[in-house]
Design goal:
three-stranded antiparallel beta sheet; 1 helix
């Protein structure tokens, strides 16, 4: 047998293997964007209206994040989400997902108590921002140790200033 014939046969086999039907990919069983959600998470749905302020609530456990979800009147996600007031006892993540704007609140570890935040949702076009004020109630989740919430203080929050020190090096030429 010649090398040409063997090469042609090998190419034919490879072409036929490439045409063979491949099994479909396994379906994704979990939504990776929902990983880490709190065991108990509820929110009061409201429709944000451009140029006005609406109020909502979140009730969650401190064993994960909980989200306020909203969509513009067009049924699509808002173009942009801006944090106007940060929560004192947690963090926020604002993202577009599945045709909605999702404002995810994650309480600080072991925190139990009340919190609040405010976000501005910017619709597409020239309409003004829609403001959403959210009052949060955080309860202890499964497997989270109980830690007392800090007592509220009447003193105004202290601001910190960070300064950068710049130094310069002089370089001398030596002979």
């Amino acid at each position: 047998m010649s090398y040409r014939l063997l090469s042609a046969a090998a190419v034919a086999v490879l072409v036929l293997q490439g045409c063979a039907q491949k099994p479909p990919a396994a379906p994704v069983e979990t939504d990776t964007l929902n990983e880490g959600i709190a065991k108990s998470c509820t929110f009061k749905p409201v429709q944000p209206i451009p140029g006005s302020t609406v109020e909502s609530t979140i009730t969650t456990t401190n064993d994960g994040w909980c989200a306020y979800r909203a969509s513009a009147k067009s049924g699509q996600a808002f173009e942009l989400g801006l944090v106007k007031q940060r929560p004192a006892h947690g963090s926020l993540l604002i993202r577009k997902w599945n045709g909605e704007s999702r404002v995810e609140y994650t309480p600080s570890p072991s925190y139990v108590g009340a919190d609040q935040f405010e976000v501005a949702l910017r619709p597409a076009g020239t309409e003004p921002d829609a403001l959403v004020k959210v009052a949060v109630t955080v309860t202890r989740g499964e497997g989270v140790p109980a830690v007392a919430a800090p007592a509220p203080s009447d003193e105004p929050a202290k601001s910190t200033t960070t300064r950068r020190r710049t130094t310069s090096r002089s370089t001398k030429k030596t002979k």
